[in-house]
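Researcher: Quick sanity check before group meeting.
Model: Go ahead. Protein one:
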Amino acid sequence: MTLRGRALLGLGLLTYVAARAFGSKPLYPVALGLLFATVAAWLWVRLAQGPMRLHRELGAEERIEGDDVDVELRLERDARVPPASLVLVESVSGLGERRTPLDSRRGRYTLSGVRRGRYVFLDARAVLEDAFGLQRAEIPLAAPWTLLVYPRLVELDRLFSEGGIYAHDGRRLLLRRPSGFDLHSVREYEQGESLRKVHWRSTAKRGELMVKELEDAPRDEVAVLLDAEASAVVGESFDVQVRVAGSLLLAQARRGRRAVLLVNGAHRTVQRVHSYETDWQQAYDLLAAAEADGHAPAAALLGDEGSAGTRALELTVVTASLSAMLVERLLQRTLGQRRAALVYVDPASFGANGAHSAPQPALLRLQAGGVPVAVIRRGDDLVTRLGTRGVGDSVRGGVA
């Protein structure tokens, strides 16, 4: 019963008591009318209750960040009488509570300018009322649902990391065999074997010669590492990181290259894209749901020799946190004849005043060491920055 219903019920009882106390017959019809109204409202809402099933419908097109999302609602009911008022209340993670009136069991609302992310509809309930708002009933609805809003990616014909010392004398990297030898196990040394196969760490530990058992394992050609370190996020900087990583991965996947996406978040996630037709959607879903909740630096992931990013022939790191250890890891890759590139999303430019960050000599050091670098600031055109033009000016702008 609503507050209005309780007030009306109390007034009816009070009027009835007054009629009995003073013997006023004209007050009896008034008291009985007030009491009857509350009982009728209760009965109306009671009969309007019944099993309900909620259906949400969206258009077939993908939901891209910044777009409006139209949600159609349809409620199936099995009840004897229709309610005078029916409102659907939904609790959505990141969006709060929404109240949508339903007319003839249908309703519609628009989520305006939705940001990229994974939105979970945590709770839904139908609120029924009578015509006078005296009685209310809430019916929980089992309607779990998840809405994915995807990042807005750009088409890249060429990449800033192509050309220069990585052109391989005009040969395409695609023709190189994406494989390598991995350590499978160690065993005791046998007479006549080459000492080059000795695994010195195991030898020192066991006090006898141990040799490496190697296996030829396929490698991913391209790895894109999205650094989701929480402490580096300023404003919408992480959303830009996601757009950059997704655009780079999309360009490689459409070229038919074996690619892998790594998200350095609270839970390190790996998604391989060996075929655009079959694997891209899973990577796109991962980009949509990515959150900046990581605590370990990207350099720690690159220090793991068994990680997919370390083993890949080519690695591009997309980060807003430029540490000395990360710079060293990338330079070490280059010295080991493995390609590395860096996209630095300047977090300072996403602050309140939009200023550039403090000088970053590490960017010039990377470029001088053969690591292609692109710097992204708020408002930059990703096609230009991730292409072949303007990269040098961008780096110099980051250290001047």
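Researcher: Fine. The other one?
Model: Protein two, sequence then structure:
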Amino acid sequence: MYFKAVVISLSLLLCLSASADELKQNIDSTLQKCKMDAVSTIDSQNCYIKATTAWDTELGNQYKLLMKDQHENVRAALRDSQRQWIKYRDSYNKGIEAFYQKEEGTIWSLIAAESKMNIIRDKTLDLYRLRNSTNLGG
């Protein structure tokens, strides 16, 4: 019985990972293509702006889907959690800016942009996984 539960749990995790991979593939692929086509730092910065906007839009979509059909106490807890995460994100973005501003060279603005984008990307995938974690049917 224990073995069966482990197999089912592992299968569920693999399904969630595969689906999360599909979720991120489109935005990440578009970003990669944009960076490959970029001929200047400004072009690359614009790639990150577009990708960050796309991830932020998807974050909103995942949040709405997660909140849908939840009991009020769950919605309140998730809403409070998301508000705290937004404060964290904003504060961390300021830290990223301060950290990379002291460096010389244009590459650091791109590294900062990617770091800030990844915060949103990771949260989007977390919300997706949370939303789908109770879907045992696959």
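Researcher: One line on it for the slide.
Model: The chain is about 85% helix and 0% strand.
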